[in-house]
Structure formats: structure tokens, C-alpha cells
Amino acid sequence: MKKLFPILSYLNIVIAIILLNVLVSSLVSTRFDLTRNKVHSLSERTGELISSLDDIVRVKVYLSEELPPEVEGIASNLKIVLGEMEKTKGGNFVVEYYDPGKDAEVEAEAERLGIEKLQFSTSKKDKFEMQEGYFGLSINKGDKKIVLPVAGDVGNLEYLIVSAIKKLEKGSLGKLGVAEEVWDLSKISEIEYLREYLANEYDVVPVNLDDTEESIKDLDALLIVGRVREIDARKIDEIRQWQEEGGSLVALIDKYRVSSQLESNMVEEENLFNYLEEKGFSVKNNLVIDKSSAIASFGGEKGNFLTQYPYWIQVQKEGVNREVPAMSGVVEVMLPWVSEMEVSLGAEAILRSSGESMTRSGEGMLSPSNQIVIPEGSEREIVLGGINREKRTAVIADADFIRDQFLKSNSSNLVMALNLVDYFSGDEDLLTIRSKKIEVKGIGVLEDNEKTIYRVVAMISPLLIIGLSLLVTNLLRRRANR
Predict the structure, then answer these.
(1) For labeling, which of 21, 27, 242, 404 is most exposed (least CB within 10 Å)?
(2) How many domains are contained in the chain?
(3) CB of 249 closer than 8 Å to CB of 221
């Protein structure tokens, strides 16, 4: 009987734990998001929007069941985010999953929507192989739909779905003119990635600033990306009058054009820069260099090499003015070949370099092989971008940061550009749910003494656990034998 007592005690404890677990799980459903950027948590405004839906919004996810291990993690994150949206009260947000690879009709439907089969590279048994699969979705409300052919941008998924719902309800958030001067003449546009996002929210129309007959009066906002040639004074007068009537301007402009051979020359444009001074933005004839800079890849005689390139400014979170709503969600920004700016007339700085930066002449060869030393005592913070809320104008003294070449590897660049446009569109809901970057934390390299400590701890830990278990068991037996 004495031997039976400890066994019954163990059984009672186990049963009590199981019953308590069942009771708590039936009463409370709590999930903790421990990801660094709260990737799996919805913003408060998103919950309110989904709860207030007056009709069914149906998200059809076309997702292959068998995906490479490298993609399975992204697919899992996608399901978690959509699951959180579906659980929001109201019941009008519905998610459905389809595998086109298992159903010919579903496959045909996906292809009609423009969701094509993707090719993924994966490594199996030390060999690289190609694997095909589907990874897209459509957002449907009534007979209207918006399609995301590739749904892999999970960090921006909440934003994309909310902006799609708003567009399905309103038609669009306004008419946005985009005036882009393409430097690479082999391309129609160098900001295709940005255009794709803008098209989810706005009626995007091309604007030719060289055409003095083309009117901009019907635009709600104008985005200028890069400018080399002079804008006619009559066009500047039209922009001035349009802004006086409520138009919003976002100018992403360069003082210098840098070629693929890294040769820098000043742009011809003056009228636009003079006009921006009326709004409180004075862009200087220089380029900024900073010890806080990005790593760049360059080609040399012996092949490609990586180096820290001081002309590619890495603006850290300390340099982002978070008091301005348009900078919501902007963690850091990478600005290649950016110039100094001074703000006045009510304009505010929104981006600053680190305290270890300086300016230098912008013309000449900007080769990474030229050693640049920032003299001690000459370092200072430098304004790189600003916003004038009253005059409805924002200016970044760099256009390269938003080009496809730099945008895809710097998600915060996209966040900032979209934020600036959305801010002046009057839809601040979108600012609160901007990008939640998914980061993979690397494993740090350990020193030899640290490795030894980890090995010892790994060897001792099981022995300590076993010893503690035996001690507890022995104490229980003694208490039962009394």
C-alpha cells in the first residue's frame, strides 16, 4: 500500500494538470507574438476595418501543398496572418485555400487570374533542383477582385489586403500622376516595383513634364522621380497653381546623375529646385558621405568584391523623424548618392545622416577604390529629406533609392515612398499598418572559449535534470513511508 501511494500521487498530479489545461484552453485562447517586428499581429485599425465590413470579402489563396523548405516558412507566415484576419469579429472576412496542382479547374482559374506557376530553386542531397508551385491569391468582394500573382511579400501582406479592400469599396484612393525620367533607355520604367504597389491604391497616370500642353489639374497628387532636363517655366507655374488649389507633391530628385561606371555629373534642372525652395527645401550642390553606409558589390579586374561604400548612406532609426506620421513604420532607409538639404518656411526634416558624416564635391569618379577619410572634427548630422505639411510637399534629395535596383533589397525604402504618397492622400489608416519586415537572425560566430562553455553546459544539463528528478522521487518516497 505504501508503494502504491506515490504512484497514485503521481497519477493525481498528471490528471490535475490535464484537467487544468483543458479548462484553461476552453476558456481562453491567447497567442503571443514573439517575432521581432510583430509580423503575426494585426494593427488595431485593421481589426476595426475588418469588423466593420458590410459584405463578404473572400480571399482565395492558390498555394501548392508541396513547396521547397525555403518557401514553407513564408507560406506558414502567410497562413498565420490570414488566420488572424479571419478570426477578427464580424465574420465577413473569409479565407479559402486551393491547390491548383491537384485540380485542373482550379489551375485553369488561377491562370485566368494571372496567377502563374512559379519556379523555386531548392537544394536536395547537395544538388540544386527546380521545383514548380503556386503562391498567389485574389481578394474578392461581390463581382470585384484584386489579384496578387505572388503573395510572398508577407511583411507587407496586411497593408496590401487593407489597401485592396479600400480600393474594392471606393474604387481608388485618388488620381496619382507619376513623372519619371528614365535614365536607362533600354527600360520603359525603373520603378516598376513601386508602380505595382501604387496601382493597388490609386489610379496611376503617367505625366510628361516636358509637355506644356498636358494638364495636371485633375490630379490629386504628383510624384516626381528623378529629373535631368530643365522643366519649362510655364510647367512650373502650372504646378504652383495646382498646389495652391490643394494638389500634393512628392519629389524624389537628384542633384547628380551617377552612371554605371560611377561617373557623377550635375543635372541640368534648375527651375524645379528653385520652385522647391519656395516650399522650404534647398538642395545643395554636393554629395553626402557617411561612416554609417551600406555594403556594395562592385566589379574589378579580379572579379566582384564587397566593400563598405560611403556614398550609400544607411539612415538608422535615430535619423528617422518618427514625430511625422508619414514616417510610421520606417525603421531605416538606404539612400545612394544623396545630397544635403536645408529646410525652412515650416518644413521639417524627416531624414538625417549619422553624426559621422560630411559633404564633398558631387562631380567626378565615385569609385570605391578611392579611399575616403572623414577628418576628425568635420563630422555632423546632415538633413537628407523633409516634409512641409502646410504646403503639402515632401522632398528626398535622392531618386535612386526608389529604383528597382535598390528597392527590392531595402523594404523600408518602399515603406517610406508609399507613406509619403498616402499621407497626402488623407488616408492615414494605411500609415499604421505599413511593412513588418520578416528578419532571420543569423547565428553568431562563437569564440573557442565560448564553444567550450556551451559544450560543458550541454553535457552537464541532462545529468542535473536526472539528478534533480531522482532527488524529488526519493523525497516523495520517504514522505510516503512515514
Answers:
(1) 27
(2) 3
(3) yes
